[in-house]
Structures are given as structure tokens and as C-alpha cells.
Amino acid sequence: MRDIRNKGWFWVENSLIDRDDLNPYEKLLYMTLARYCDNNGKCFPAIETLMKATGINSKATIVKYLKNLEKKELIFVVRCSGKSNTYYLKNVEKKEDNQFNSNTSLLNEPVHEMNNTSSPDELLPVHDVNSKETNLKRHNKKTNKEKNKKEKSQKNEIQEFINNLSEDNEYKELLFKYIEYRKNIKKPIKTILPIKKIVKDFPNWFVLDEAINIAMEKEWTGLEPEWIEKHKKSKVFNNNNENKIAESKDTSHLKVDDNFMEQMKARYGL
């Protein structure tokens, strides 16, 4: 049978397209009914709905080809008085395997009229098929579009702010380098406020270059002068300790020449 339309789409059997006893209108109408079917292959679109969906502007033409589909045992129709008919779609390829086979008394009986005074418009759930999912997709699409638009606006704002700085191009390149670094570590800069602070805290190329290199080395997400100074002092301290350790291991002053060793041997009878 047809797809359950869990993802906003449906399918029909290849044999529907391959059947040469169906004209284009009958195939189109069958596919349109399939589009509105529920999990059980049942639907009840109004004639006006089918006209709009298929583009067939004649009500008589729709009725004619519905009857043709019924005669060719592709659909089973329960006609309802005062509201839309109910259509059950049969399997195109295997007529005997569908849920309304010849063994069921329902198919062997003439179509029953159902008395109901409800208006046709009261029973049009076909328009609500998958409506929640469709609305959700539309909402997500709108949300993503607004998010992308906002991110693009923020990016343009930051870029425009940097380009308008009085600093030279090399300084500006460092700022863009830092922005790219933050983007790569999944911590993008979204406003110009952090850039303003960086420009204030690191006013020239040399201190900014040093700060950015340290931040990238330590994988920091921010640039704080205190962090930079603390890191530099720590590095100087470590270097001094390494030098002292190296000096303490220097034994060159303990070396003695061969004459001294001979004197010691003679003095102590060695």
C-alpha cells in the first residue's frame, strides 16, 4: 500500500505507473487519494479538495474518474449522505491481497448510503494530515533562517567595527586571527564588546600578538591582561629554576689536574 507519510511524503507502487489500462487522470487521482490516506489506506477528501489538488476544474470529471478507479478495483468507496465520501485504496499490483478482498462480505455487498446531516466541511481531516509535523518543519526552517540572518548580521557588525578602527592593517589582521581562533574552538565572538575590550587592553601590535599566541598555546577562550602577565612571570620563574638546576649540575670547578693527583698519591702513600 501507500507510505504512512511519517516524514511528509508518500509513495505509490510502480505498477500504478506501468498499468496501461489507466489514463493520466486516473493515475493522478489515485496518487492524490494516496497523498491523503491514513495508516489504513483510508481518506475522505471533499470533491473540491480533489479538484484543487489535481488541477482538474470539473467536478463531473473528478466523479467520472473516481467511478473508473472503483470499477477497476483500485479503490473502494463508502458514500456518505451530507458529507464527503470515504475512500479505501487497494493494492495496485495484487488485487487479491488487499485488505478488502473478495472473501469479505463488505466488498460483495452494494455500496451503502450513510445518512448524516453534517456539512461536508466538518469532515476534512485531510487538510490536517501531518499538520503538526509540517508546522514544526516550517517553524524550524523559520528559526534557522532567523538564526543565520542574526549570525550574519553580527559578523558584519564585528567586521565593520574592526575595519573602522584607526589601527593599522597588521593590527586588524591580528584581531581577525583571534576571531577565527575563537570560531575554531567553538567559542565564537558574537558581539563587538569583546573586541572593544581587547583593543583597550592590548593597544599595539606587539602586546596583542604576544597575548594571542599565549592564548592559542594555552587554549584560552579569553584575553585578559592579568592572565598574560601571570603566564609570563611563571615562564620566567621556570626558566630561572632551569638555569639554577643546570648550574648546580656543573662540576667543572671540581676537576683536578694530573700533577695534583700524583702529589696526593705520594703524600698518602697510594
Short account of what is shown:
The protein has 270 residues and is mostly helical. It has helices at 14-18, 24-36, 47-54, 59-71, 105-108, 131-163, 169-184, 193-201, 205-218, 225-248, 258-267, and strands spanning 42-43, 75-78, 80-81, 86-89, 114-115.
What would you say this structure looks like, in words?
- The protein is mostly helical.
- The protein has helices at residues 14-18, 24-36, 47-54, 59-71, 105-108, 131-163, 169-184, 193-201, 205-218, 225-248, 258-267; strands at residues 42-43, 75-78, 80-81, 86-89, 114-115.
- A 3-stranded antiparallel sheet has the order 1-4-2. A two-stranded parallel ribbon has the order 3-5.
- The longest helix has 33 residues, at 131-163.
- It is elongated, with a radius of gyration of 41 Å.
Note the main attributes of this structure.
two-stranded parallel ribbon; 3-stranded antiparallel β-sheet; Arc Repressor Mutant, subunit A; single chain; 270 residues; mainly alpha
The geometry reads as elongated
Q: Write the H/E string, N to C.
A: HHEHHEEEHEHHHHHH
Please give the CATH class of the domain at 14-126. Mainly Alpha
Helix content: 55-70%
What's the layout of helices and strands?
Elements: H1 14-18, H2 24-36, E1 42-43, H3 47-54, H4 59-71, E2 75-78, E3 80-81, E4 86-89, H5 105-108, E5 114-115, H6 131-163, H7 169-184, H8 193-201, H9 205-218, H10 225-248, H11 258-267
Parallel strand pairs: 3-5
Antiparallel strand pairs: 1-4, 2-4
